[in-house]
Amino acid sequence: MPKKILITGGAGFIGSHVVRRFVSNYPNYEIVNLDKLTYAGNLANLSDIEDRPNYRFVKLDITEAAAMNELFRTENFDGVIHLAAESHVDRSITDPTAFVMTNVIGTVNLLNAAREHWKGSYEEKRFYHVSTDEVYGALGETGMFTESTAYDPHSPYSASKASSDHFVRAYHDTYGLDVVISNCSNNYGSHHFPEKLIPLAINNIKNSKPVPVYGRGENVRDWLWVEDHARAIDVIYHQAASGQTYNIGGHNEWKNIDLINLLCRIMDKKLEREPGTSAKLITFVTDRAGHDLRYAIDSAKLQKELDWVPSLQFEEGLEKTVDWYLENEDWLNNVTSGNYQAYYENQYQNR
Length: 351
Ligand code: NAD
Ligand code: DAU
Description:
Blueprint: E1 4-8, H1 13-25, E2 30-35, E3 55-59, H2 65-75, E4 79-82, H3 89-94, H4 96-118, E5 126-132, H5 156-175, E6 179-184, E7 186-188, H6 197-206, E8 211-214, E9 220-225, H7 226-239, E10 245-248, E11 253-255, H8 256-270, E12 282-285, H9 300-306, H10 314-327, H11 329-337, H12 342-349
Parallel strand pairs: 1-2, 1-4, 2-3, 4-5, 5-6, 6-10, 7-9, 8-12
Antiparallel strand pairs: 9-11
Helix pairs in contact: 1-7, 2-4, 4-5, 6-8, 8-10
2'deoxy-thymidine-5'-diphospho-alpha-D-glucose binds near residues 89, 134, 185, 186 and 219.
GO biological process, one term: nucleotide-sugar metabolic process
Protein name: dTDP-glucose 4,6-dehydratase
Organism: Pedobacter yulinensis
């Protein structure tokens, strides 16, 4: 059945992969990408699909309640896949309020608009909230997060995402809104903003600049290829029962220092440098405040119920990611110089 789906945050890293997947795989759907285009939003991420007839972009801020209500009134969406967020933990430490505004208030504004417009007839309507494993807090040396792990967020970022998850569930329990939530581990892949560990390290190694590793690099993250995340979102959006939560992860734990050493070896090979050249750039720096030691996701529920498993081995995926950054020097240069923000002005405002 044709559907009109609002995807928020579609100009960001994961959002752009989700938009591309839905626009390409569902030509009979109408996909509306809503994004404020903050520093993290980049319409060049979608230049390959921006002219498709089933795709549209709207520049709006989810913190503006009246604008959200008006959008829902005029567009009559069948579903929402909500990814728009402030996403970087380090930024949340310096400016927590921005995270409360977008991640909590923005999510509640969307929930209110959906509830108001759908008016209790939630047949064929769905609100999907894309969330993070960071809501569960930190693990010690062993164990994994399951869907029943108690929330224990530590950073302002994870506290804001935990709060938004609670609001989404509350709207299901209180008003009967059809909701689904997924909590995913660290993503990697193309179009990742170079403030996050992997693209930052690729960019710095390429430019022979220091690669900052927090503390002693002992923290562990579970890495998942972004296109596997987008596929999981597709499967959950279409097949999950209302009110369900799914954990999404790569079964792929790496200590930061081991990951960076692997990346250094790949970069030496790709840049045809002497083995060991890139590793000399590794610089241990002051640790992140409240740095969670370890994340690991148990995604058995998703595998068992919806038959999803990651498709790509990490070493292969990391090499693919490095290739993308080296082949897309313009994208990286535009992002690091700030020029990408002119893309919207040129491509859209003059139409
Ligand atoms: P990102 O920072 O790359 O993109 C976020 C997008 O949201 C940007 O395009 C930005 O312009 C937009 N945005 C921010 N504030 C907005 C506002 N007020 N109104 C409208 N748009 C706004 O983030 P990402 O890494 O792609 O993450 C996307 C979602 O997935 C987030 O909700 C994040 O919490 C979640 N998530 C991310 C990861 C990860 O590893 N990156 C893992 C699990 C979950
Ligand atoms: O787990 C899911 C989360 O993964 C998402 O919800 C977040 O939106 C996403 O940003 C990511 O959070 P992390 O804090 O884990 O990602 P980041 O790339 O910032 O850091 C990964 C690890 O590397 C973490 O242990 C901190 C460390 N780090 C990070 C940076 C930027 C460094 O050692 N040096 C760095 O320069």
